[in-house]
TrEMBL record:
GO terms for molecular function: manganese ion binding. CDD domains: cupin_OxOx. Disulfide bonds join 29-46. Keywords: Apoplast, Disulfide bond, Glycoprotein, Manganese, Metal-binding, Secreted, Signal. It is found in: Secreted, Extracellular space, Apoplast. Oxalate binds at residues 106, 111, 116. This is Germin-like protein. Belongs to the germin family. The lineage of its organism: Eukaryota, Viridiplantae, Streptophyta, Embryophyta, Tracheophyta. The keyword Signal applies.
Length: 220
């Protein structure tokens, strides 16, 4: 009986382990818009592989600097499955991040579906992430050629501490990694979170919370 329980637990563990993102059974699945009334579960519908072309797998213009004249002084150009349909089912995407001089910030955020690996190509970045409870802060100053990894789901950021423009490229382990910008998610969702909740959670005066909600309302 004990042997049976062990085998049953082993089978359950194997089934759970093998049920996460199985490898595709075809070379590729170029994404196409969902048919009318289709149910979106994960990924996209596939284009007939005999009709795929090179443009399904390519993108041009990642060498062009993005506009960083905004409130945080950064701009993320994300190439996910919506920009390169051929990424569908392949579990990877790419981003270029431009940072304004003197404090350009990619603000604290998370990617719920991806680990990120970042390489700096221009400038000097102060980067870091926070672990799950109990929270530890892990940070480093990066220079051109340096690489840093942000584990999946953890809050992280990049901050330009130099007087010059900075550029980094990031690989992400999902065709659609998603992003949750912490400040926008807390103070700017629609409808807003009850300010009494946030006042107690952050130990702030309710008026401060309401002012922050007004500030971030248009940024979410």
């Amino acid at each position: 009986m004990k042997a049976f329980h062990f085998l049953a637990l082993l089978a359950l563990a194997f089934s759970l382990a093998s049920a996460y993102d199985p490898s595709p059974l075809q070379d590729f699945c170029v994404a196409i818009p969902e048919p009318k009334n289709a149910v979106f579960v994960n990924g996209k519908f596939c284009k007939n592989p005999n009709l795929t072309v090179a443009n399904d797998f390519s993108f041009s213009g990642l060498n062009i600097p993005a506009n960083t004249q905004n409130q945080v002084g950064s701009n993320v150009t994300l190439l996910n499955v919506d920009r390169i349909p051929g990424l569908n089912t392949l579990g990877i995407s790419l981003a270029r991040i431009d940072y304004a001089p003197n404090g350009g910030l990619n603000p604290p955020h998370t990617h719920p579906r991806a680990t990120e690996i970042l390489v700096v190509v221009e400038g000097t970045l102060y980067v870091g992430f926070v672990t799950s409870n109990p929270n530890r802060f892990i940070s480093k100053v990066l220079y051109p050629g340096d690489v840093f990894v942000f584990p999946i789901g953890l809050i992280h950021f990049q901050f330009n501490i130099a007087k010059t423009h900075a550029v980094a490229f990031a690989g992400l382990s999902s065709q659609n990694p998603g992003v949750i910008t912490i400040s926008n998610a807390i103070f700017g969702p629609n409808p807003p979170i009850n300010p009494d909740v946030l006042a107690k959670a952050f130990q702030l005066d309710k008026n401060v919370v309401e002012n922050l909600q007004k500030l971030f309302k248009n940024n979410a």
